[in-house]
Design a protein that fits this description.
The structure holds 2 protein chains of 2 kinds. Chain A is mainly beta. Chain A is built from no helices and 11 strands. In chain A, the strands form 2 sheets. In chain A, strands 2, 4, 5, 6, 9, 10 and 11 form a 7-stranded mixed β-sheet that branches. Chain A has a 4-stranded antiparallel β-sheet with strand order 1-3-8-7, with no helix packed on it. Chain A is globular, with a radius of gyration of 13 Å. Chain B is built from no helices and 9 strands. In chain B, a hairpin with a 6-residue loop joins β3 and β4. The chains are: A mainly beta, B mainly beta. Chains A and B meet through β5 and β10 of A and β3, β7 and β8 of B.
Chain lengths: ~120, ~110
Amino acid sequence: EVQLVESGGGLVQPGGSLRLSCAASGFTFSSNWMSWVRQAPGKGLEWVAGIKPDGSEKYYVDSVKGRFTISRDNAKSSLYLQMNSLRAEDTAVYYCAKDGSWSSDHWGQGTLITVSS
Amino acid sequence: QSALTQPPSASGSPGQSVTISCTGTSSDVGGYNHVSWYQQHPGKAPKLMIYEVTERPSGVPDRFSGSKSGNTASLTVSGLQAEDEADYYCSSFAGSKHWVFGGGTKLTVL
């Protein structure tokens, strides 16, 4: 069974940093694209970043370019999102998602990031 | 990278069919057959319901079907059941390894 478990969320001040982690199991992590998708309170889904299976290619939505970095450790079956220069508008539940067949076929339960002073 | 356009709400009675639209552009929905649909119940993670416009993952009832014409994709739920009440989001590949979601549609089963 595929399992994705996010951690690292919490309250952070504007301008601060936070690192999210996603522990994956139940599939061959090193063979799959992975993504981070966020959902602001009461709002819709927004794709944030994606990373190739070997980590050689990374892609970001324009609003987080230069501030967020997606990475992975295939030996640990883990996905990460380093978030710097956080803004109030980054407040959201962040989901880790396994990609397959041009879609996100499995999602974690999400972790809440609140950016506020 | 503008969001895809979905109606904010849709509704139907048990047993009826309802169709939710998702309109994009030739740079996303119209340009690729990589449209997917997600169901999200309150407080839960999204669940993949349709991928590649028309394909259903194993375990998804065949009451759910997808289609696409031009820049608009659609999700049809036939034989509505109470448990289908949820938010539904479309998503499309938008080129350059980027993805875009719709704003979501709240489906109410009357």
